[in-house]
Amino acid sequence: MSETEADTRANRIDPVLRDAGWGVVDGAHIHRELICPGRILAGGQRGAALSADYVLSYRGRKLAVIEAKRAGLGHSDGVGQAKEYAGRLQARFAYATNGIGWYGIDMHSGTEGDIALPFPSPDELWLRCFPDGNDWRERFGAVPFETGGGKWHPRYYQHNAITAVLEAIAQDKNRILLTLATGTGKTSIAFQIAWKLFHARWNLSRDPVRRPRILFLADRNILADQAFNAFSAFAPDALCRIRPEEIRRRGGIPRNASVFFTIFQTFMTGGGESEGDGGEPQFTFEGYEPDFFDFIVIDECHRGGARDESTWRGILDYFKPAVQLGLTATPKRDVNVDTYAYFGEPVYSYALKEGIGDGFLTPFKVRQMASTMDEYRYSDGDTVLAGDLDRDRTYTEADFNTR
What we know:
By secondary structure, this protein is α/β, with parallel strands linked by helices. It folds into two domains: 125 residues, tt1808, chain A (Alpha-Beta Complex), CATH 3.90.1570; 224 residues, 3-Layer(aba) Sandwich (Rossmann fold), CATH 3.40.50. 28% of the residues lie in helices and 22% in strands. Strands 9-10-8-13-14-7-15 form a seven-stranded parallel sheet, sandwiched between helices. Strands 1-2-3-4-5-6 form a six-stranded mixed sheet, with helices on both faces. The chain is globular, with a radius of gyration of 25 Å. About 1% of the residues have low confidence.
């Protein structure tokens, strides 16, 4: 009877990994990962799913992927799969094996070839990945994801995005951008980042004593409300929704919380607490010290917060000391170059095409519709669903689908 892949894994590969300390050393984990379920096809069918045989994680970071084949096949037969999976999971090392021979690839340097056992230990692989050493990288990795009692697990691209942002923070980068397609869970990503920062006690002073003060800034109340609800794993007294009526009720801006949620428009109203140099009331945001917030998340940042000419840009400039994370679903185009100029290139991107190909997003067809309307002017019976509308302006076809 020929040896199956399951036999090879149990009798040949698992003991090698165990002897190296994987699954034994504290913080060193081995797991099989369903990378993606496969593209959604007609008739309720799906394309081929992708699943990694072994993913080796240590201190919260995915370091290596191993593709296993049964002993009767060549030890390097799984190299292509191992490279693809390691690339998707952003693991530094990829390995292919039949339990007898082992083939290794360094995805960063491009070096590859047969390797001799013993297999690298968790500490050996960690040092190969991160020879510089960084206390915050390890502190962030020590904080587990908040899974809601096992109800939530990060998709591979969400894990990549969270890891990329935390690595940027660990490297003292203060302007960070994530570009992920609509429907990929950007709010969940923001929550997990905030959760790790909070529990690692990261703050601008980089002294792990005080917990950070975090601001989630959106341009619509529905987005701020959704984020507030998505952060419900935090203790109730740690969360604060900043609204104009709440400021009036309190007689001032709220300060006693850890995670604050508001919209640009609320921050741009007069705070009523004091007056500026010109005798005019301050904006609400100026009631806070410029370094009050350690970390600011700007949701849908392409819609104006980072534009040079935007009145909202003053808020971001005022809170200049804070680490600022921009979230957008819009790839770089002529209309949003200011966003990329302000935040820099994305530390991680996940496009609509990738989401559809992986099966996390549903394919769609664009249907062209003819219209007899060639201009529009607001009338009293019309309802404005979103955005700002000049009610005295006549909009022409050139304005349609641009505002």
